[in-house]
Amino acid sequence: MDLLLPRSPGSSQMVSHCSVIQMDSSANSVNSSKTSLPPRYSFGWSGKQSKSLKQPLIKSSLQLRTVLTSKTRDISTSSLSNDEKIGVLLLNLGGPETLEDVQPFLFNLFADPDIIRLPRLFRFLQKPLAQFISVARAPKSKEGYAAIGGGSPLRKITDEQAEELRKALCEKDIPAKVYVGMRYWHPFTEEAIEQIKKDGITKLVVLPLYPQFSISTSGSSLRLLESIFREDEYLVNMQHTVIPSWYQREGYIKAMGDLIENELRKFEQPEKVMIFFSAHGVPLAYVEEAGDPYKAEMEECVDLIMEELEKRRLPNPYTLAYQSRVGPVEWLKPYTDETIVELGQRGVESLLAVPISFVSEHIETLEEIDVEYKELALKSGIQKWGRVPALGCQPTFISDLADAVIESLPYVGAMAVSNLEARQSLVPLGSVEELLAVYDSQRRELPAPVTVWEWGWTKSAETWNGRAAMLAVVVLVFLEVTTGEGFLHQWGILPISR
Ligand SMILES: C=CC1=C(C)c2cc3[nH]c(cc4nc(cc5[nH]c(cc1n2)c(C)c5CCC(=O)O)C(CCC(=O)O)=C4C)c(C)c3C=C
Ligand SMILES: [Fe+2]
């Protein structure tokens, strides 16, 4: 994809079922020159800065917000003409709709190199390994999905969010079509893109439905989108912009504050409740070696929510932990299960769990938190347990997403990085290609966890033994998959082909 420059402006009128918008080209102050990415953006990338460095930047962004919202509204409408059609593409993970979908869904997930990161030399083993892990994990995952009604609610909730977002945009005089593109299940991103092309969308805002950026979520979806864009003539010429993360937006923080306050009020003594933020984990190496900004963004997000609660005179104690780890490597700590046990031992009596990485109910809220962690908490001595619902279609949240889209419109097709407003915008912006370019330039290949060999029962020995074992498993699985014979077939793990 090339850098897409703004179209030459012209005064025009756009008619839709929502409203009629008058457009004044003179308001277009977008500077299209390409320099570097906005500081907010590269700042978020490093994932290694201290909190004290980050706070002032966020605060200044928040202060700027009112000015920006009114100004960007003028700019957004000014760059549209009557043949412009705005689309918003919501990116999400996707989930199996039936129990039969579970294994193929898991295959898609584990076949993603942003989820299972093999050294370059072993990339050809990605699919056999994904087949092996998905088959091995499917029974456990199926149990979870069976417990929440036989499938993931993600598609239904995301469709509802898309419809509410469309309505909110409409009410704010921005007629737009809103599409859902899932990474690992239907409707796949490719399906959404086909529809976008059929509908003749000319300006696209890409909005991952993850508040915080991670290589494994928004990063993976954007990488896929980039490859789709690169190969398609229509898409190469379609102007677009990306909102890579939006956890710092005032509306989102307020919406989270509302949900938490509501649940706190249900306790007999709300002031004594420990607020327990439970974020989805990622392997530690993503953050420490590959520069995933996820942990830094998560910590800032929690700080902002707590500031909001303090403003409401709810200065409760709080903690942040990471859940849902998969596989043998170390993930972000502290782990949710261990923290719950520790809090019980420390005499905490009331706990309010807040899922924080995701804006819909899903298997990890409905099963892992509501069933497994609740049971663990009660066993560990915690007497009162509550859980904040996921945002879903909460009106303040949806309205804020609509504002994020509107604020991003002036930058569709124009990075505007030298523009002061864009630099300090609450919504860090860029095109898919540019965002990934920065991401890749700062991301190093994951190094081997241990580089120097040590003799004895050491970490390096464990690592290399583990790798040798993994390689052996991969080779065996590869032979099984290609020949259709072997121990996995004999044990019934892989179906025998007839
Ligand atoms: C193995 C690596 C995984 C990483 C890294 C990871 C990151 C990550 N995931 C979410 C959000 C969700 N993940 C969901 C399901 C899910 N995720 C993994 C693995 C990794 N996730 C697996 C194996 C599964 C399947 C379920 C299971 O077997 O446990 C879902 C649920 C979708 C649903 O159907 O309801 C969500 C949501 C985030 C936010 C994240 C990193 C920040
Ligand atoms: Fe996950």
TrEMBL record:
CDD domains: Ferrochelatase_C, Ferrochelatase_N. It comes from the Eukaryota. It is found in: Plastid, Chloroplast. GO terms for cellular component: chloroplast; mitochondrion. One of its GO terms (biological process) is heme biosynthetic process. Pathway: Porphyrin-containing compound metabolism; protoheme biosynthesis; protoheme from protoporphyrin-IX: step 1/1. Keywords: Chloroplast, Heme biosynthesis, Iron, Lyase, Plastid, Porphyrin biosynthesis. It is an enzyme of class 4 (lyase). It catalyses: heme b + 2 H(+) = protoporphyrin IX + Fe(2+). The keyword Transcription regulation does not apply. Its EC number is 4.98.1.1. One of its GO terms (molecular function) is ferrochelatase activity. Catalyzes the ferrous insertion into protoporphyrin IX. PANTHER family: FERROCHELATASE, FERROCHELATASE, MITOCHONDRIAL. Belongs to the ferrochelatase family. This is Ferrochelatase. It comes from Heracleum sosnowskyi.
